[in-house]
Amino acid sequence: MTLSQQDLAPASPEQRAGKAISYPAGDGQTIASTRAGSHNKQNKQSLDYVLRTGLAGGLAGCAAKTVVGPLDRVKILFQASSPQFAKYTGSWFGAVTAMRDINRQDGMRGLFRGHSATLLRIFPYAAIKFLAYEQIRSVIISSPSQETPLRRLLSGSLAGVTSVFFTYPLELIRVRLAFETKHHTRTSLSSICSQIYHEQPGKASVTSPAPLSTSPPAAISSSFTPRSGLVNFYRGFSPTIAGMLPYAGMSFLTHDTVNDLLRHPSLAPYTTIGPNSSLRSTSSGKPTHSVLTYWAELLSGGIAGLVSQTASYPLEVIRRRMQVGGVVGDGHRLRIGETARRIWVEKGWRGFWVGLGIGYFKVVPMAA
Which of 2, 323, 367 is nearest to 164 (CA)? Predict the structure, then answer.
């Protein structure tokens, strides 16, 4: 899924900046409190706030992806069932052995193959996701009385879907570059884009089991689907969206819920900055959440990453297999059901959790 997705910090930008969550006041202004009890007003709809929030989110995403770049590539190779690296799956030290082999064959550059596309994608993805969450949250949760788990889940899900929609072609390019294991050539961004654009069923370069039979409705619908062109850049888009709902939704929901628990009066003296209270009041008498310490933010982000990764991981594996469908088998566009059946036939239920350990290892620092 997306999402990979794969893949960003769930904390809201005002929490990243050390600011408390704020809500619109009755006069249309926005009440916002900063560190050390400052009561400066901040308009979340202003261009300055939008640009600063987007820049912070994009830079944070680029830094996190660079740190876990080698793990991310190995994870993609495992999920997409690369013939060369399938033997390492299921082993405690499989990821370490795979990285060692990649480094021996291609050097350090091999561990970061596709990273340029990763950075091109992650900045707009992170920026759009942070911006969308702030704007959507301000509409769906406009007062403390509307702060419910369902509204938090809806805000996170819509923010994730919005960011994926605009950046999915870059995600596909990143996966294709990371999946490539040729030693004598290095595919450039322009050549991989051209290859994806001109792919047609029956012209794949890597052999795999013959496609499973498809139902008559699927066959009929496929006859009306363009065989090449821009549609190729959206292979695996449906499981990405399906996986983004539980991933982004559970990510924001868990993060906000853990934050509320950490602000409980019994924990507030140890987890918050400023007065030993879970709530503080502004000059107008409106309550606002106190600011968490850095370690409390890291804890809530890490837990959110683990929960969201687990909830959406099977769909992420399905997505990876669909994304590389143009270079394996006969190149036809796999559907969710067909891909899931193929994974089950090849590896059983364990096939849906291949690389999950790597996902846990890299998602905690990214989410935190």
Answer: 2
- Distance CA(355)–CA(351), nearest Å, equals 9
Q: Up-side HSE of residue 195: CA atoms within 13 Å toward CB?
A: 19
pLDDT in tens, 88-135: 887 778 888 999 999 888 888 888 888 888 888 877 877 787 788 888
Nearest to 313 by CA among 273, 258, 351: 351
Q: Do the Cβ atoms of 196 and 232 come closer than 8 Å?
A: yes
d(CA 218, CA 200): 17
Could you report the average pLDDT of every consecutive run of 10 residues in the chain (368 residues)? 44 43 41 41 68 77 84 90 83 86 88 86 76 86 84 81 87 88 72 85 49 46 57 88 78 86 88 63 53 86 87 90 76 82 90 87 64
Tally of CA atoms within 13 A in the half-sphere of 316 that contains its CB: 30
Q: Rounded to an integer, what is the distance from CA 12 to the centroid of its chain?
A: 15
Structure tokens at 187: 């595919």
In this structure, the dihedral spanned by the alpha carbons of residues 71, 72, 75 and 76, taken in order and rounded to 10 degrees, is -150
Cα–Cα distance for residue pair 181/110, rounded to 1 Å:
9
